[in-house]
Amino acid sequence: MSINLSTLPASDKNKIELDKQASFLVWKLREAKAVPDEIDQVAAKITDQEEQASFLESVAKYKRVMGVA
Q: Which Gene3D superfamilies match (predicted)?
């Protein structure tokens, strides 16, 4: 079964994008190409509380998966 992401509602597309950003930021942390403060800066720019919570959950998930403290 294939899923066309372009047909998703805008809120779902945004959550997917935030998840990708979280993954990338945690990868940068693991590779010492970023500092933990960058995650806080990105989270602070997210105005919707639900999206911000989703982003921070994704960050926690990727930290656990990638073994980042």
A: DNA polymerase III-theta
* Number of CB atoms found within 10 A of residue 38's CB: 13
Q: Using a CB cutoff of 8 Å and minimum separation of 24, what contacts does 34-43 make?
A: none
CA pair distance 12, 27, nearest whole angstrom: 23
Cβ-defined contacts of 50-55 (< 8 Å, 24+): 51/14, 51/15, 51/18, 54/15, 54/18, 54/19, 55/18, 55/19, 55/21, 55/22
| pTM assigned to the model | 0.89
